[in-house]
Amino acid sequence: MTDRPPPPPSDDLATMTRRLRGAVELQAILREGKGLGKGSVLRALDRAAELIRTERRREGAAAPGRPRAAARVTTASVPPRAKTPAPAAPVVGSWQRDPTEFDSLGELHDAFAECQRCPLGKTRTHFVFGTGSPKAKLVFVGEAPGREEDLQGEPFVGPAGRLLNKILAAIGFRRNEVYIANILKCRPPGNRDPQPMEIASCSPILARQVDILRPVVLCTLGSFAARTLLGVNQGISRLRGGTHDYRGIPVIPTYHPAALLRNSAWKRPTWEDVQRLRREYDRRLAESADLPPETTS
Ligand code: URA
Ligand code: URA
């Protein structure tokens, strides 16, 4: 008798074994997510995606020449366990820390300023977190940094930002008394549209910013911000004009200032939207001031 290891399984068997192990781990991760909040489920999905990516890389290394496929979490055979739908696209990379662990904007910024969760981390100049007052009760949400924003590290400082400043002034706000952020914190090269994967990867940071600020009103600028925060697919022309809801916070969508620079026909509806925004803000702020302190937190 010798201590020789058993003969290696055939390639197919090895692959199947790894897949099976991956499936069992995925099942455990999903089970762990049962009854937990959105954050935990998303974290579990990230870890599942990471596992699958590792398997893919191993398979890719075993079969050179095959293009590297994007990771995809296949849930078809797994019964849904959480009310929150999985992100629309796979999330690249995982985070060491979750945004929900941080209770101040400063800590949140510092924890993610070096983020490399999606490929935009490689091409950005600056991580563009957000700007404005940490006491702001009005939050504007745009799409993603452009060229100027990427260079300066601050949202809305280019041409669209200059127009946003004018819009703010017209309704009686200074830039430093509101808060301004984007869905994506890093610039998509050439200002291309954000990819679903980038939105899914990055938007937990914005969600936490909003949770920390607890604004009385949110204003989304352009289609991407509105669709992302409201979880809908309609275009901005359908969404604007109404007041929507994001986790109990009223949302007033309007056109993107960059769109107004291209098409002046959108100026009038935008003007109507922001006047309504001002009224809604004043009303909600007065209401929240009337509430006893223990119910305002
Ligand atoms: N467009 C955006 O959506 N955000 C910015 O910060 C700048 C331009
Ligand atoms: N398309 C957009 O994405 N945003 C606008 O504001 C207008 C058109």
Characterization of the model:
With 297 residues, this protein is of the alpha/beta class. It has two domains: 14-56; 97-296, Uracil-DNA Glycosylase, subunit E (3-Layer(aba) Sandwich), CATH 3.40.470. Helix content is 47%, strand content 8%. The chain has eleven helices and six strands. Strands 1-3-2-4-6-5 form a six-stranded mixed β-sheet, sandwiched between helices. Helix 1 (11-33) runs antiparallel to helix 2 (38-62). The chain is globular. It starts with 10 loop residues before the first helix and ends in a 7-residue tail after the last helix. Bound molecules: uracil (2 copies). One uracil (URA) binds at residues 222-223, 236, 255-256, 259. Residues 222-223, 236, 255-256, 259 line the site of one uracil (URA).
SSE topology:
Layout: H1 11-33, H2 38-62, H3 105-112, H4 120-123, E1 131-132, E2 138-142, H5 147-152, H6 159-170, E3 179-182, H7 196-213, E4 217-221, H8 222-230, H9 236-239, E5 244-246, E6 249-254, H10 257-262, H11 267-290
Helix pairs in contact: 1-2
This protein binds uracil (2 copies).
One uracil binds next to helix 8.
